[in-house]
Amino acid sequence: MENLQLTEKLNKPSILDLEKEDLNKIVAESGEKPYRAEQLWRSIYKECNLDFSEITTLSKNFRNFLSTKFRIGTLEKKIHINSIDSSTTKLLFGLNDGELIESVLMRYTSDYGKKGRKTACISTQAGCALGCTFCATGQQGFRRNLTSGEIIEQVLQLQKIALKEDLLEVEQGKRKKGEIQGITNIVYMGMGEPLANYKNTIKSVKNVIDNSGINIGSRHITISTVGLVPKIKKLSKEKLQINLAISLHAPDNKTRSETMPVNKRFPIEELIDVCHYYVEQTNRRIFFEYILLEDQNDSLSNAEKLGKLLNGLHCHVNLIPVNPTTNGVYGRTDDNANRLFQGVLKRFGIPSTIRVEKGIDINAGCGQLRERVLSTN
Ligand code: SF4
Protein backbone atom coordinates (compact mmCIF):
# COMPACT_ATOMS: atom_id res chain seq x y z
CA MET A 1 0.00 0.00 0.00
CA GLU A 2 2.83 2.34 0.96
CA ASN A 3 4.59 1.51 -2.32
CA LEU A 4 1.41 2.21 -4.28
CA GLN A 5 1.06 5.64 -2.65
CA LEU A 6 4.70 6.41 -3.38
CA THR A 7 4.32 5.40 -7.05
CA GLU A 8 1.19 7.54 -7.34
CA LYS A 9 3.07 10.49 -5.88
CA LEU A 10 6.04 10.01 -8.19
CA ASN A 11 3.78 9.88 -11.24
CA LYS A 12 2.22 13.25 -10.55
CA PRO A 13 3.47 16.16 -12.64
CA SER A 14 5.62 18.76 -10.91
CA ILE A 15 4.02 22.18 -10.51
CA LEU A 16 7.53 23.61 -11.09
CA ASP A 17 7.17 22.71 -14.76
CA LEU A 18 4.23 25.11 -15.12
CA GLU A 19 4.36 28.79 -16.02
CA LYS A 20 2.95 31.54 -13.88
CA GLU A 21 -0.17 31.92 -16.05
CA ASP A 22 -0.93 28.22 -15.62
CA LEU A 23 -1.40 28.76 -11.89
CA ASN A 24 -4.31 31.13 -12.63
CA LYS A 25 -6.10 28.33 -14.47
CA ILE A 26 -5.49 25.87 -11.61
CA VAL A 27 -6.83 28.33 -9.07
CA ALA A 28 -9.92 28.99 -11.22
CA GLU A 29 -10.52 25.26 -11.53
CA SER A 30 -10.27 24.82 -7.76
CA GLY A 31 -12.86 27.54 -7.09
CA GLU A 32 -10.39 29.61 -5.03
CA LYS A 33 -10.11 33.42 -5.36
CA PRO A 34 -7.75 34.58 -8.17
CA TYR A 35 -5.24 36.18 -5.75
CA ARG A 36 -4.40 32.67 -4.49
CA ALA A 37 -2.36 32.09 -7.67
CA GLU A 38 0.10 34.84 -6.73
CA GLN A 39 0.16 33.55 -3.15
CA LEU A 40 0.97 30.04 -4.35
CA TRP A 41 3.72 31.36 -6.65
CA ARG A 42 5.32 33.35 -3.84
CA SER A 43 5.10 30.43 -1.42
CA ILE A 44 7.00 28.21 -3.81
CA TYR A 45 9.48 30.57 -5.40
CA LYS A 46 10.06 33.21 -2.72
CA GLU A 47 9.68 31.08 0.41
CA CYS A 48 11.09 27.92 -1.21
CA ASN A 49 8.35 25.59 0.00
CA LEU A 50 8.81 22.32 -1.84
CA ASP A 51 5.87 20.44 -0.34
CA PHE A 52 2.23 21.63 -0.34
CA SER A 53 1.91 20.72 3.33
CA GLU A 54 4.46 23.47 4.16
CA ILE A 55 2.29 26.21 2.61
CA THR A 56 0.19 27.09 5.64
CA THR A 57 -1.02 30.39 4.16
CA LEU A 58 -3.28 28.37 1.86
CA SER A 59 -6.42 26.62 3.10
CA LYS A 60 -6.22 22.91 3.83
CA ASN A 61 -8.82 22.23 1.14
CA PHE A 62 -6.81 24.03 -1.50
CA ARG A 63 -3.60 22.25 -0.44
CA ASN A 64 -5.41 18.91 -0.70
CA PHE A 65 -6.74 19.88 -4.13
CA LEU A 66 -3.21 20.75 -5.27
CA SER A 67 -1.62 17.62 -3.88
CA THR A 68 -4.13 15.32 -5.58
CA LYS A 69 -2.99 16.73 -8.93
CA PHE A 70 0.63 17.79 -8.51
CA ARG A 71 3.74 17.64 -6.43
CA ILE A 72 6.32 20.40 -6.05
CA GLY A 73 9.78 18.98 -5.55
CA THR A 74 10.95 15.89 -7.42
CA LEU A 75 14.68 15.87 -6.63
CA GLU A 76 15.96 13.45 -4.03
CA LYS A 77 19.04 14.69 -2.20
CA LYS A 78 21.57 11.82 -2.22
CA ILE A 79 24.73 13.57 -1.08
CA HIS A 80 25.39 16.95 0.54
CA ILE A 81 29.03 17.84 1.14
CA ASN A 82 30.90 20.98 2.10
CA SER A 83 34.46 21.87 1.18
CA ILE A 84 36.97 22.12 4.04
CA ASP A 85 37.00 25.92 3.83
CA SER A 86 33.13 25.94 3.80
CA SER A 87 33.12 28.06 0.65
CA THR A 88 31.50 25.38 -1.49
CA THR A 89 28.57 23.00 -1.06
CA LYS A 90 27.91 20.28 -3.54
CA LEU A 91 24.65 18.37 -3.84
CA LEU A 92 24.05 15.17 -5.75
CA PHE A 93 20.37 14.67 -6.63
CA GLY A 94 18.52 11.61 -7.85
CA LEU A 95 15.80 12.27 -10.46
CA ASN A 96 12.58 10.27 -10.47
CA ASP A 97 13.90 7.94 -13.19
CA GLY A 98 17.10 7.21 -11.26
CA GLU A 99 19.39 9.62 -13.14
CA LEU A 100 21.87 11.64 -11.11
CA ILE A 101 22.70 15.33 -11.39
CA GLU A 102 24.89 17.75 -9.47
CA SER A 103 24.41 21.31 -8.24
CA VAL A 104 26.90 23.51 -6.44
CA LEU A 105 26.65 26.55 -4.16
CA MET A 106 29.76 28.74 -4.10
CA ARG A 107 30.28 31.48 -1.53
CA TYR A 108 32.56 34.44 -2.20
CA THR A 109 33.33 36.81 0.62
CA SER A 110 35.33 39.58 -0.99
CA ASP A 111 33.75 40.70 -4.21
CA TYR A 112 30.08 41.52 -3.72
CA GLY A 113 29.69 44.29 -1.22
CA LYS A 114 30.05 43.49 2.43
CA LYS A 115 27.95 40.37 2.52
CA GLY A 116 29.49 38.29 -0.26
CA ARG A 117 28.19 36.76 -3.44
CA LYS A 118 26.53 33.34 -3.44
CA THR A 119 26.49 31.62 -6.78
CA ALA A 120 24.36 28.61 -7.70
CA CYS A 121 25.85 26.40 -10.39
CA ILE A 122 23.14 24.23 -11.92
CA SER A 123 22.78 21.38 -14.40
CA THR A 124 20.55 21.32 -17.48
CA GLN A 125 21.04 17.74 -18.64
CA ALA A 126 21.73 14.38 -17.05
CA GLY A 127 25.04 13.57 -18.71
CA CYS A 128 26.12 15.30 -21.90
CA ALA A 129 26.50 14.27 -25.53
CA LEU A 130 29.31 16.65 -26.42
CA GLY A 131 32.21 14.63 -25.07
CA CYS A 132 34.75 17.32 -24.13
CA THR A 133 37.79 15.30 -23.10
CA PHE A 134 38.65 17.37 -20.00
CA CYS A 135 35.15 17.07 -18.51
CA ALA A 136 33.90 14.32 -16.21
CA THR A 137 30.30 14.70 -17.47
CA GLY A 138 31.47 14.47 -21.06
CA GLN A 139 33.19 11.20 -20.24
CA GLN A 140 29.86 9.75 -18.97
CA GLY A 141 27.72 10.26 -22.11
CA PHE A 142 24.23 11.74 -22.57
CA ARG A 143 21.28 10.48 -20.48
CA ARG A 144 18.46 13.01 -20.96
CA ASN A 145 17.39 16.67 -20.90
CA LEU A 146 16.15 18.04 -17.60
CA THR A 147 12.69 19.57 -17.44
CA SER A 148 12.48 23.27 -16.62
CA GLY A 149 11.10 22.25 -13.20
CA GLU A 150 14.15 20.09 -12.47
CA ILE A 151 16.41 22.99 -13.42
CA ILE A 152 14.48 25.45 -11.24
CA GLU A 153 14.30 23.08 -8.28
CA GLN A 154 18.10 22.99 -8.09
CA VAL A 155 18.00 26.78 -7.58
CA LEU A 156 15.30 26.41 -4.91
CA GLN A 157 17.21 23.70 -3.06
CA LEU A 158 20.36 25.83 -3.02
CA GLN A 159 18.33 28.92 -2.14
CA LYS A 160 16.98 27.14 0.95
CA ILE A 161 20.55 26.57 2.13
CA ALA A 162 21.64 30.12 1.32
CA LEU A 163 18.65 31.71 3.09
CA LYS A 164 19.08 29.51 6.16
CA GLU A 165 22.69 30.71 6.44
CA ASP A 166 21.62 34.35 6.08
CA LEU A 167 18.99 33.92 8.81
CA LEU A 168 21.54 32.31 11.12
CA GLU A 169 23.84 35.29 10.60
CA VAL A 170 20.95 37.61 11.49
CA GLU A 171 20.46 35.70 14.75
CA GLN A 172 24.19 35.91 15.44
CA GLY A 173 24.18 39.67 14.77
CA LYS A 174 26.53 39.32 11.78
CA ARG A 175 23.93 40.47 9.28
CA LYS A 176 20.99 42.88 9.41
CA LYS A 177 17.48 41.64 8.56
CA GLY A 178 17.43 43.87 5.48
CA GLU A 179 20.58 42.18 4.24
CA ILE A 180 19.06 38.74 3.74
CA GLN A 181 19.84 38.05 0.11
CA GLY A 182 20.18 34.29 -0.47
CA ILE A 183 21.57 33.38 -3.86
CA THR A 184 22.87 36.39 -5.78
CA ASN A 185 24.03 34.74 -9.02
CA ILE A 186 23.19 31.70 -11.12
CA VAL A 187 25.50 30.04 -13.59
CA TYR A 188 24.24 27.41 -16.01
CA MET A 189 27.56 25.60 -15.93
CA GLY A 190 26.78 22.29 -14.25
CA MET A 191 26.22 19.02 -16.07
CA GLY A 192 25.13 19.28 -19.69
CA GLU A 193 25.03 21.86 -22.48
CA PRO A 194 22.28 24.41 -21.66
CA LEU A 195 21.70 25.44 -25.28
CA ALA A 196 21.19 21.79 -26.29
CA ASN A 197 18.21 21.91 -23.91
CA TYR A 198 17.25 25.36 -25.17
CA LYS A 199 13.52 25.50 -24.46
CA ASN A 200 13.70 24.32 -20.86
CA THR A 201 16.78 26.40 -20.11
CA ILE A 202 15.12 29.62 -21.31
CA LYS A 203 11.86 28.74 -19.55
CA SER A 204 13.81 28.32 -16.30
CA VAL A 205 15.63 31.65 -16.79
CA LYS A 206 12.31 33.45 -17.27
CA ASN A 207 11.10 31.88 -14.05
CA VAL A 208 14.11 32.76 -11.88
CA ILE A 209 14.13 36.43 -12.96
CA ASP A 210 10.47 36.91 -11.98
CA ASN A 211 10.50 39.61 -9.33
CA SER A 212 7.74 38.15 -7.21
CA GLY A 213 9.55 34.84 -6.96
CA ILE A 214 13.24 33.92 -6.92
CA ASN A 215 14.03 37.37 -8.34
CA ILE A 216 17.63 37.07 -9.51
CA GLY A 217 18.51 39.96 -11.84
CA SER A 218 19.18 38.93 -15.46
CA ARG A 219 22.64 40.43 -15.30
CA HIS A 220 23.49 38.01 -12.51
CA ILE A 221 22.65 34.99 -14.63
CA THR A 222 25.19 33.34 -16.92
CA ILE A 223 24.53 30.71 -19.55
CA SER A 224 27.61 28.77 -20.52
CA THR A 225 27.84 27.05 -23.89
CA VAL A 226 30.47 25.18 -25.87
CA GLY A 227 29.35 27.21 -28.86
CA LEU A 228 26.22 25.86 -30.57
CA VAL A 229 26.22 28.55 -33.25
CA PRO A 230 22.53 28.52 -34.34
CA LYS A 231 21.40 28.54 -30.70
CA ILE A 232 23.63 31.53 -29.88
CA LYS A 233 21.97 33.36 -32.76
CA LYS A 234 18.55 32.43 -31.38
CA LEU A 235 19.56 33.52 -27.87
CA SER A 236 20.60 36.95 -29.15
CA LYS A 237 16.94 37.60 -30.03
CA GLU A 238 15.48 36.64 -26.65
CA LYS A 239 15.81 40.15 -25.19
CA LEU A 240 17.23 38.76 -21.98
CA GLN A 241 19.99 40.79 -20.37
CA ILE A 242 21.81 37.66 -19.22
CA ASN A 243 25.53 36.92 -19.58
CA LEU A 244 26.78 34.52 -22.20
CA ALA A 245 29.92 32.50 -21.51
CA ILE A 246 31.57 30.51 -24.28
CA SER A 247 33.82 27.57 -23.45
CA LEU A 248 36.60 28.26 -25.91
CA HIS A 249 39.60 26.48 -24.39
CA ALA A 250 41.80 26.77 -27.50
CA PRO A 251 42.73 29.49 -30.00
CA ASP A 252 42.74 27.37 -33.19
CA ASN A 253 40.69 24.58 -34.76
CA LYS A 254 43.36 21.91 -34.51
CA THR A 255 43.94 22.36 -30.76
CA ARG A 256 40.24 22.88 -30.01
CA SER A 257 39.08 19.81 -31.93
CA GLU A 258 41.47 17.67 -29.90
CA THR A 259 39.57 18.36 -26.67
CA MET A 260 36.15 19.53 -27.93
CA PRO A 261 34.56 17.37 -30.64
CA VAL A 262 31.84 20.05 -31.13
CA ASN A 263 34.49 22.17 -32.86
CA LYS A 264 34.23 19.93 -35.93
CA ARG A 265 30.55 20.94 -36.28
CA PHE A 266 31.05 24.60 -35.45
CA PRO A 267 34.65 25.65 -36.15
CA ILE A 268 36.22 28.62 -34.44
CA GLU A 269 35.69 31.06 -37.36
CA GLU A 270 31.91 30.45 -37.31
CA LEU A 271 31.86 30.69 -33.55
CA ILE A 272 33.69 34.01 -33.42
CA ASP A 273 31.47 35.37 -36.23
CA VAL A 274 28.33 34.57 -34.25
CA CYS A 275 29.91 36.15 -31.15
CA HIS A 276 30.34 39.42 -33.07
CA TYR A 277 26.71 39.11 -34.16
CA TYR A 278 25.60 38.47 -30.57
CA VAL A 279 27.42 41.54 -29.28
CA GLU A 280 25.91 43.70 -32.06
CA GLN A 281 22.39 42.46 -31.28
CA THR A 282 22.56 42.60 -27.50
CA ASN A 283 25.24 45.16 -26.69
CA ARG A 284 26.45 42.66 -24.12
CA ARG A 285 30.04 41.63 -23.53
CA ILE A 286 30.83 37.93 -24.03
CA PHE A 287 32.79 35.90 -21.50
CA PHE A 288 35.22 33.31 -22.83
CA GLU A 289 36.13 30.40 -20.61
CA TYR A 290 39.60 29.05 -21.22
CA ILE A 291 40.65 26.02 -19.16
CA LEU A 292 44.43 25.94 -19.01
CA LEU A 293 45.62 22.42 -19.78
CA GLU A 294 49.30 21.81 -19.29
CA ASP A 295 51.20 21.36 -22.59
CA GLN A 296 47.89 21.37 -24.49
CA ASN A 297 46.72 24.97 -24.81
CA ASP A 298 48.76 26.95 -22.26
CA SER A 299 51.84 28.05 -24.23
CA LEU A 300 52.64 31.69 -24.93
CA SER A 301 52.11 31.11 -28.64
CA ASN A 302 48.58 29.89 -27.77
CA ALA A 303 48.10 33.12 -25.83
CA GLU A 304 49.26 35.15 -28.88
CA LYS A 305 46.81 33.32 -31.14
CA LEU A 306 44.00 33.87 -28.62
CA GLY A 307 44.83 37.58 -28.46
CA LYS A 308 44.60 37.87 -32.25
CA LEU A 309 41.39 35.84 -32.41
CA LEU A 310 39.52 37.96 -29.88
CA ASN A 311 40.99 41.31 -30.92
CA GLY A 312 38.20 43.87 -31.36
CA LEU A 313 35.49 41.75 -29.75
CA HIS A 314 33.74 43.12 -26.65
CA CYS A 315 34.73 40.32 -24.29
CA HIS A 316 36.39 39.12 -21.10
CA VAL A 317 38.46 35.95 -20.75
CA ASN A 318 38.25 33.70 -17.68
CA LEU A 319 41.39 31.60 -17.36
CA ILE A 320 40.64 28.44 -15.37
CA PRO A 321 43.26 26.02 -14.05
CA VAL A 322 41.94 22.51 -14.88
CA ASN A 323 40.26 20.42 -12.17
CA PRO A 324 41.95 17.02 -11.91
CA THR A 325 39.50 14.18 -12.78
CA THR A 326 39.99 10.54 -11.89
CA ASN A 327 40.63 9.60 -15.52
CA GLY A 328 41.89 13.02 -16.57
CA VAL A 329 45.01 13.18 -18.71
CA TYR A 330 45.83 16.87 -18.29
CA GLY A 331 48.07 18.42 -15.67
CA ARG A 332 47.55 21.84 -14.06
CA THR A 333 49.39 24.84 -15.43
CA ASP A 334 51.42 26.49 -12.67
CA ASP A 335 50.63 29.96 -11.32
CA ASN A 336 53.56 31.66 -13.01
CA ALA A 337 52.62 30.28 -16.45
CA ASN A 338 49.00 31.43 -15.82
CA ARG A 339 50.20 34.96 -15.21
CA LEU A 340 52.46 35.00 -18.30
CA PHE A 341 49.50 33.81 -20.41
CA GLN A 342 47.38 36.59 -18.95
CA GLY A 343 50.14 39.13 -19.68
CA VAL A 344 50.00 38.33 -23.39
CA LEU A 345 46.23 38.88 -23.48
CA LYS A 346 46.73 42.21 -21.74
CA ARG A 347 49.04 43.32 -24.57
CA PHE A 348 46.13 42.79 -26.95
CA GLY A 349 43.89 44.87 -24.68
CA ILE A 350 41.81 41.84 -23.69
CA PRO A 351 40.69 41.86 -20.05
CA SER A 352 41.01 38.56 -18.24
CA THR A 353 40.73 36.97 -14.79
CA ILE A 354 42.36 33.86 -13.37
CA ARG A 355 39.37 32.20 -11.77
CA VAL A 356 39.31 31.63 -8.02
CA GLU A 357 39.16 27.88 -7.62
CA LYS A 358 36.51 26.44 -5.37
CA GLY A 359 35.69 23.01 -4.03
CA ILE A 360 38.68 21.05 -5.35
CA ASP A 361 38.53 18.83 -2.21
CA ILE A 362 34.87 17.91 -2.87
CA ASN A 363 35.12 17.28 -6.62
CA ALA A 364 33.19 20.43 -7.48
CA GLY A 365 34.04 20.34 -11.18
CA CYS A 366 31.09 19.42 -13.38
CA GLY A 367 30.24 15.71 -13.25
CA GLN A 368 33.04 14.82 -10.88
CA LEU A 369 30.90 13.89 -7.87
CA ARG A 370 28.60 11.67 -9.95
CA GLU A 371 31.65 10.05 -11.49
CA ARG A 372 33.15 9.37 -8.07
CA VAL A 373 29.89 7.94 -6.68
CA LEU A 374 29.35 5.61 -9.63
CA SER A 375 32.96 4.42 -9.63
CA THR A 376 32.80 3.54 -5.95
CA ASN A 377 29.44 1.73 -6.12
S1 SF4 B 1 32.18 20.70 -20.77
FE1 SF4 B 1 29.97 21.00 -20.89
S2 SF4 B 1 29.52 20.58 -23.06
FE2 SF4 B 1 31.56 19.70 -22.69
S3 SF4 B 1 31.12 17.56 -22.16
FE3 SF4 B 1 31.21 18.75 -20.23
S4 SF4 B 1 29.09 19.25 -19.81
FE4 SF4 B 1 29.20 18.68 -21.95
Q: What is the CATH fold-level name of the largest domain? A: TIM Barrel
**Low-confidence runs of at least 5 consecutive residues:** none
Q: Which molecules are bound in this entry?
A: iron/sulfur cluster
Strand content: 15-25%
Mean pLDDT: 89
* Major sheet strand order: 1-2-3-4-7-8-9-10-11-12
Architecture per CATH nomenclature, i.e. the level-2 architecture of the largest domain: Alpha-Beta Barrel
Figure out the total of helices. Answer: 13
Q: Kindly state the number of beta strands.
A: 12
Domain count: 2
Largest sheet: 10 strands, mixed
The CATH homologous superfamily of the largest domain is termed Aldolase class I
How would you characterize this protein structure?
The protein folds into 2 domains: 2-69, Orthogonal Bundle (DNA polymerase, domain 1), CATH 1.10.150.530; 76-376, TIM Barrel (Alpha-Beta Barrel). With 377 residues, the chain is α/β, with parallel strands linked by helices. A 10-stranded mixed beta sheet has the order 1-2-3-4-7-8-9-10-11-12. A two-stranded antiparallel ribbon has the order 5-6. 38% of the residues lie in helices and 18% in strands. Iron/sulfur cluster binds at residues 128, 130-132, 135, 137-138, 191-193, 226, 247, 366.
